[in-house]
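This entry is set out below.
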Amino acid sequence: MKVFKEAQKFTQVWVILLFILLNSFFLYGIYQQFILKIPFGDNPMPNSVLILSTIGFILLTLFFFSMKLKTTIDETGIYYQFYPIQLKAKKISWSALKYASVVTFNPILDYGGWGIKHNSYTVKGRIGIQLVLKSGKKLLIGTQKEQNATRVLETYQKKMK
């Protein structure tokens, strides 16, 4: 009995730098407007709006970096969860699958980027587990463990018949 488990987070340097830059912008605005007593910008926000915007963006940052794509493949099927957006993992049983394989894809051109996009769940990279259900629906789950996923899928190929 082979089991594949993976948990992925957004750890790309450019994403981290973007959030640091945006949070720094808001925090500097508070510093300038409250400590230096200089209005922040040509048309400054009221203090309450600046504080709420800063808190909101910090909370958004914490939410974003708490997101995790969890994937499990075992003898009962394939489970995937994009926590905390999905609080419970979704299961696709082997009997519901027509086909499953590891594929290379272009996140921008094929799905419009990373995250939950139409029928894809991705965090980073260009490798994913392509699922084709017997209903005709397609689903892509991103992975960073191409070889492990391939081996486990090959183990359970006969369960898809």
Q: What stands out?
A: The CA atoms of residues 19 and 60 lie 10 Å apart. The two ends are 18 Å apart (CA to CA).
